[in-house]
Design brief:
This protein is an alpha/beta fold and about 210 residues long. It has a domain of about 140 residues: Glutaredoxin (3-Layer(aba) Sandwich), CATH 3.40.30.10. It has six helices and seven strands, in the order αβαβαβαββααββ. Probable thiol-disulfide oxidoreductase that may participate in various redox reactions. This is Thioredoxin domain-containing protein. Belongs to the thioredoxin family. One of its GO terms (cellular component) is chloroplast.
Length: about 210
C-alpha cells in the first residue's frame, strides 16, 4: 500500500504540465533573490521571465509553444516564476495578469513586458525576433528596475534585502558645453570706482 502511494505521488509530481518539455535553457525561479541573481548573472544574454500559474488554462495552453521557442533559441534564458508559490513577489513586481512575460538584456535592463495567449502568440514571436540578435551592451547588467528592487526589499513576506546605490558624484565643477552651442558672455559684474567724493557703478560687460 505504501509503495503504491509513493508511486502515485511520484506520478503526480512527474505530470506537472509546467515541467513537461523543459529545455536546458529553462528553469524555475525559487525566490526573489534567485530572480535578481539570475538576471544579474545573465550578462548580455536575452532573458525571458515567464510568470505562470498551475491553474491558469492560458498558461498551460501556451507552455508547449514557450518550450518550442526555448529549443529554437538556445542562447536565450527562460526563467519561470510560479505565481502560486511567489504571489507576494509577483505583487511587488506589479504582475497581475497571467500569462505574463518580461524581456531583459544586459545594461539595457527591461526591454518590454506584456501578456499574451495562444491567440496572440505573434506578440511573443515578434518580441523574441526584435530583441534576440546578439548585442554587446556597455555597462553593468541592470536586471530589475531599482524601484522593483526596493519594492521587493520592502515586502515583509520576502527574505530579500537591497541597499539603494549611491548617486554618482560629478568630478569637479567644470562647465560642459555641447559642441555647436553658442557661448554666452559671462554676466556683467558691477565695478565700484571711486571718483572725487562720489561713487558710480560701471558695468564691465563689453
Amino acid at each position: 500500500c505504501d509503495s503504491l502511494l509513493i508511486m502515485n505521488l511520484a506520478f503526480a509530481k512527474s505530470t506537472k504540465w509546467w515541467e513537461k518539455g523543459l529545455q536546458p535553457n529553462m528553469r524555475e525561479i525559487e525566490s526573489a533573490q534567485d530572480l535578481v541573481d539570475s538576471l544579474a548573472n545573465a550578462g548580455d544574454r536575452l532573458v525571458v521571465v515567464d510568470f505562470f500559474s498551475p491553474g491558469c488554462g492560458g498558461c498551460r495552453a501556451l507552455h508547449p509553444k514557450i518550450c518550442q521557442f526555448a529549443e529554437q533559441n538556445p542562447d536565450v534564458l527562460f526563467l519561470q516564476v510560479n505565481y502560486e508559490e511567489h504571489k507576494s513577489m509577483c505583487y511587488s513586481l506589479h504582475v497581475h495578469v497571467l500569462p505574463f512575460f518580461r524581456f531583459y538584456r544586459g545594461a539595457q535592463g527591461r526591454l518590454c513586458s506584456f501578456s499574451c495567449t495562444n491567440a496572440t502568440i505573434k506578440k511573443f514571436r515578434d518580441a523574441l525576433a526584435k530583441h534576440n540578435p546578439d548585442r554587446c551592451s556597455i555597462g553593468p547588467t541592470r536586471g530589475l528596475e531599482e524601484s522593483e528592487l526596493l519594492a521587493l526589499a520592502a515586502n515583509k513576506d520576502l527574505e530579500f534585502t537591497y541597499t539603494k546605490q549611491p548617486e554618482p558624484v560629478p568630478s569637479g565643477d567644470r562647465e560642459v558645453i555641447a559642441p555647436g552651442s553658442p557661448r554666452l558672455p559671462p554676466p556683467a559684474k558691477p565695478l565700484v570706482r571711486q571718483g572725487s567724493g562720489e561713487r558710480t557703478l560701471v558695468s564691465s560687460g563689453r
